[in-house]
Amino acid sequence: MIEQLQETTDYLIKRGVKDPQIGVILGTGLGSQFIEKMEVLVTVDYEDIPHFPEATVLSHEGKLFYGVINGKKVVALSGRFHFYEGYSMQQITMPVRVLKLLGIKQLLLSNAAGNMNLNWKKGELMLIDDHINLQPDNPLRGPNDEKLGSRFPDMSAPYDLKLNDKLKAIAKDRKIALREGVYVAVMGPNLETRAEYRFLKNIGADVVGMSTVPEVIVANHMELPCCAISILTDDCDPDNLKPVNIAEIIEIAGKAEVDLTELYIDLIHKL
User: What per-residue confidence (pLDDT) applies to 57?
Assistant: First the structure.
């Protein structure tokens, strides 16, 4: 793994990606509007990056952008990888390790999630305070390389408290509604049954999705502070469950992107 990571890192440095301070994984709901705020210096297609998987999911562009936002050097990954696409957990999380080796000091993530908290509604944003991992594998399974991190990384606060506090303060100042809660990660790609939504809510989750947690595990393994925001794209009330329209989910995520972009642009300015 170390050799592949180094080859990928060296390639990006040769392409001009040098000394980035902040990494951003542009999941569903964070994309074009965020890139428009960046003074883009380098663009690289995933297919050209050694050992990088291919982004296969609709709305995940599959490009790496390097540039400047509010005076900070930023690497933004437009498109992430999921376990349900057939990739290993090591492949899914490889970009996080590469970003860390490139030199980033903080990692910002976003995703789309199903809302199980009946006090909230779709279209809102949720700051992830904690997570429950129900995915069937772990990116740290297998031999551990101490150069990357410890065998048993602590997960008592997987989402950096300082970053979360800054985001809550920004949201308050800008009058952006920002919920706070627990994200549960499942494998997918199918959505959940009524009984599964009841189960997930009963074990303490507010929202459910199919990503982010493996990346957060690896970020903690490498002692990389991170934060994540979910866009609540559909309501998951098991007593009033309606078929999900993927086009509607993408539309809702696109509308919420305005506030999400504003939060992360302001956070970058304050880091």
Answer: 65
